[in-house]
Amino acid sequence: MINFFILIPLSIVTQVSRITLSCIHIIFSKTLYIPTYLYLYKIIAHPLYTLAYIFIFNQLLHTNNYILYK
Asked: Which residue windows are transmembrane per the record (predicted)?
C-alpha cells in the first residue's frame, strides 16, 4: 500500500514538469525562439520521462504481485 501512495505524487510531478516545460516553450517562442531549447528538451526531459514511466510500471508490477501473492 505504501508503494501505491508513492505513485500518485510522482505522476503529479511529471504532469507539473510537463506543464512548466510547455509554458517555458510558449514564452520562448513568443519572445525569442531558441532552438537550443529543443535540444535541451531532448537531452534532459525525455530520459526523465522514460525513467519516471519505468519506475511507475515497476511499482505497479510490484503492487500487482503483492496483491496476487497475498
From this structure: 38-61
Q: Cell 511499482: give the residue.
A: 59
Q: Which residue from 63, 52, 54 is spatially nearest to 3, judged by alpha carbons? A: 63
φ and ψ at residue 35, rounded to 5 degrees: -70, -20
| Model pLDDT for residues 20-60, shown as the tens digit of each residue | 777 666 666 655 555 555 655 665 666 666 677 677 667 66
Q: Domain limits of the chain?
A: 2-69
pLDDT at site 43: 57
Q: Give the DSSP per-residue string, 22-40.
A: HHHHHHHHHH---THHHHH
Assessment of whether the complete model's pTM goes beyond 0.90: no
Query: Positive or negative CA dihedral for 44, 23, 7, 64?
Result: negative
Cβ pair 15, 68 in contact under 8 A: no
